[in-house]
Structures are given as C-alpha cells and as structure tokens.
Amino acid sequence: MTDLRPSPPSRARAIGAVVGSAVGDALGAPFEFGEPGVYRARFTDGAGEMCGGGGWDPGEATDDTQMAVLVGESLLEHGGLEPADVFRRFQRWAAGGPKDIGLQTEAVLTGGDPWDTAAAFHFSMTGRAAGNGSLMRAATSAVRYARAGRSATMAAARRIAALTHGDRAAWEGTAILHDLIRIALEGGDPLEVLPETLLHVHVDHRARWTTVLSPSWHPDDATESNGAVWPCLGSALWALRTTTSFEDSLGAAIDLGGDTDTVAAVTGALAGAVYGLDAVPERWTAPLHVPLPGFGDRVLRLPELTELAVALAVDSGSTPADD
Ligand SMILES: [Mg+2]
Hints:
Elements: H1 10-28, H2 38-42, H3 63-78, H4 83-95, H5 103-110, H6 118-126, H7 139-145, H8 150-161, H9 168-185, H10 190-199, H11 203-212, H12 229-241, H13 246-254, H14 260-275, H15 282-285, E1 290-291, E2 299-300, H16 302-318
The structure holds magnesium ion.
C-alpha cells in the first residue's frame, strides 16, 4: 500500500497525540454504551460535531483525558515517574466527584489500600482487572517517554497501568500503545512496525495481543465488550488501519458503539500522533474543554493541552532514560 499520509513535524505530532486523544474522548462521550452505527446515523453528511449528551456538554472531555492530564502534570513536576504521586493525584480526583470513573479504577482508588498494593489486591479479590482504564489515559506519558526509546516507554507504561489495573494484560496493552505512539512521533508507521513491538510484549500475553492487533482482525471478532483492554486497542488500530484521515478514524471508532469515548480516545492518541495537530478539525478543538474535579475550577482547553504536550515532549529529551 502506498503511504500517502503527510509527515508533520514531531512537535505537531506530540500535540496531536494529546489533543487528538482528548478530542476523541469528548466526541465519543455522548455515544457511550450506544449501539453500533449511531454516530454515522446522526451525522449523515460524515461531518461529526461535538454534540454533547448523556450528561456531557459539547466538547467536554471525560475521565480518560482528566486522568491523562493528571499523569502528565505529575511527570512534569517530578521530572519523571513518581508512582505514589500519580496515585495520590488520582485519589484526589476520584474524591472530587468526576462525572464518570471506571469501575476497576474507582475500586482501587477508593479502597483505602496503599498505592503499591491496591491494584494487585483488587485483582486478587475479583479476578477482573483487564478493563481499558489504563489504556485510555496513555497519551501524555507516551509523549513524555517516546524519546527515551522502546524499553523505557514500555516499562513506564506498565508501571502507570499497574497503579489501577492488576492484570498484566492491561499493562501489556498500555505498553503496546505507548510504543506505537513512540513510533508515530518519530515519523514511522505504527501499523508497519507493530510486529517489532509485539516481540517486546510479555510472552504470556503475546499471542492474544498478536491476534487482536493483526490486520485480519475485525471489531466483530471481539470476544468481550470494548470496555476490555484487548478489543479496545484492537478497535483503535482497526480504525486507524481502515481510514485515511484523523477525522475518519474517529468516526469509525465511535460508530462501533459500546465504550465510545475510550475507544475514540485511544484512536485519537494514535491518529493524532500519525497525522499531527493540523489534521484535527478546528470545529472539534474549539469547544474542547477538560475539567479537573478535585483540583479547583481548573479547566484545560486547547492552549493548555498544547502547552502540556510540548512541555512533556521537551522534558523527555532532557532525561532520556530515567527508567
Ligand atoms: Mg470516559
């Protein structure tokens, strides 16, 4: 296949990953838990809008982006990953009454257990911790760790995922997403380099991830809802693979139905890194806003998200391998 995608500069790709994820989150939020086909049925001319609904204002980002911002700001303030600090910020946010919070994430953050054992304890008690809740917030840390290389970015992804998700399947999925964003930020094609990334997935989880991320996999092949980590990332890759623009990739993702905000947040992180900020429609970035429950009246919009993305991209260059 001839690759006709433009090649934006790395700064535009880093901003594209962070803003693209936030845009996907806000665009998909009103369609959460809906049936497939609802998005395209609503926007028959193919030009989706930030329409709001389901408790969300037009352009309002959800827990996916809120948690990504918390991770990014912690990484900046500490010059790297301080897991206990990230966990504290998550707890403060959870106590601030966010409109939405993942089931596994909420159980771990509000259970009163120490940061370094809470997720493992929850997993040991329930056997359920492979939700997409660590995947959805990965854009900021992926930008921060990209320049540190594959091993470092995948290691950081696993540690941040493990704060709320005890199942290694979630760690590995988040590590894969980190590496695919890294590849895109360097100007590579994540779909082409994917086989290399898969070689670095934990051996116990490699076969399942290889299946769900293969070019022959279709979201209809999913064996669980896309609230689970495997079909969520599988669907995001499918949306990227089967479209040729940022806008169309999000439309394909949201039209799958189910956990639309998160599938679109993950798709948007990837597609934003591939196509860059200029490919993100202004009619989507203009109403975009990210409230931060638990942190006063703070609301991040495009300028603040841009600043965060640039700071993370620059910060990653000064300490290339702190993991
Ligand atoms: Mg959400």
